[in-house]
Amino acid sequence: MQLVTEAETRRFADPELCMEAVRECFIALARGTAQLNPIVIGKGQVAGATFSVKSGWSTDHGVAGVKIGAYWPGNELAGLPRHNSTIFLIDQQTGRIATAMEAAGLNGLRTAAADAIATDLLARLDSETLSVIGSGNQAQFELQMLLRVRPQIRKVLIGVRDPRRAGNLLQFLADRYKVAAEVVDIETACRNADILVTATPSRAPLVEAGWVRPGTHISAMGADQAGKQELSIALLKMARLFADYPAQSIVVGEFQHVAEDVASGSVGITAIGEVLLGQTKGRVSADEITIFDSSGVALQDLLVAQRVLAARDVSSIGKSNNAI
Amino acid sequence: MQLVTEAETRRFADPELCMEAVRECFIALARGTAQLNPIVIGKGQVAGATFSVKSGWSTDHGVAGVKIGAYWPGNELAGLPRHNSTIFLIDQQTGRIATAMEAAGLNGLRTAAADAIATDLLARLDSETLSVIGSGNQAQFELQMLLRVRPQIRKVLIGVRDPRRAGNLLQFLADRYKVAAEVVDIETACRNADILVTATPSRAPLVEAGWVRPGTHISAMGADQAGKQELSIALLKMARLFADYPAQSIVVGEFQHVAEDVASGSVGITAIGEVLLGQTKGRVSADEITIFDSSGVALQDLLVAQRVLAARDVSSIGKSNNAI
Prior knowledge:
CATH superfamily of the largest domain in chain A: NAD(P)-binding Rossmann-like Domain
Largest interface: A-B, 41 and 41 residues
CATH architecture of the largest domain in chain A: 3-Layer(aba) Sandwich
Oligomer: homodimer
């Protein structure tokens, strides 16, 4: 087993690589050539700590493996990220674990890449205001990737309950981008958004239906366990719904809260891969509300890990050439 | 993340350590202080290759983690074991993966330890003939651990379809033990057993009810996925049934084939931990047939891994003392 450390993973995990891998993942899921196991969730010893185990495989990509994600809320007090991720790739010849890749940063980037792909497909091209709800580590990844697919954004609103927590995010934007940025309350962030991203561990709706303008695109990335919720059910029912993997989204994702309506056929969810494949249209009018739910699928992790390894291998070939 | 290689794991994984860890596991499960997630199963690229992901946690032991097991049947042609296992322990303070332990050998030993604990509780003390069905790697671990708890065994029968495959096992017994050993067909092995162990990847019953003498104890360790089966249903119905974890045994273990009878109450299964705790009696007569199903639980893996790490730490302290 080779161990790829967090530092090494971050060195080779660039945004474009993540976008490519996640795009391939969505297409493989829509085509049915990849499979995912149900997610299982365990508990840690400290209050509120949980870990998730996601696994899957794709014959098209010759990949199989597991991602263990951890959410340790107390980490923040110790100055550590609350989320951690490690990806394990299985050697297809022998069944042994070939690679263990520390992937806390990579996980943030791949999650934001998923939202960026969906946003690129679904948000209006004339979107000017991007609002993010939440100010954790993930919010920064989301801004980075969304500003990549919508460089015409002029204004970023950071919607938080406690404005003091948004300082890092404002600094990040000021250092790297020319957009205007402002910290506001959640309702204001929602009411003024053309594109809205929710990136919180919330277990109750944060975004009310009446706060969202016609034509808004929403990417909801927080919900990944039973009980989590960022958007009101009324909002889901007035929008067109898209998901990374509908079968998982209705169990652990944001759309778990309309699972019965999906079962009865009164609410439909489109796999985002079908939009990538041109099988289903994305946004069809300038005033519809579109919602993408990112519940997070193991195949994203396996494919980004494969690409990080490939990038590292290319780099080491380059190095040995230089050495000669 | 620290990586413990297969060689290092084997160095510290002694039988007693495994027995202790597995005993603690069964007690924690019976007390309800530990929890296990449902097992999920994935597929590898080559024919028949599958991997299983088992996870759990125990507040009593301050442990949480995951075991990834692989079954790659084609490995045999390459001279490699068909089974592989890796255990991952989660750092309870931060949620990061603290340890990745290669545990192919340890897995065999812990599985055999489970059967040995059950056999010690359930087999007659005057058992003389031990029969093992199967001649893979696991059969050797089973013999090693069972001869440990029943040193009075005089004869070992190896029941296989193809006698040529049993050579390694005969050699192992000749090198280490004084028991008589013989390779026979499966029916003969069953008909003469006081203790019978099945260690195969079978998907159809290998042992018929009429082949088993009154008073026999059977440990069935092969079944760990839906569809696997080593014992006939008629045999299950004439025996008293014990399992490492009844809730899992009726889904992926041998007792999946009487799951409906268990649900209706016509068949009962006792958690082996209850026998260890004295809450339920083990064998109550010399002529009843007892069957223990080992479906394999993640907590076994987590607790043996904890003990291997502790043994390694003690050893390294010893070394540094010597160095002074």
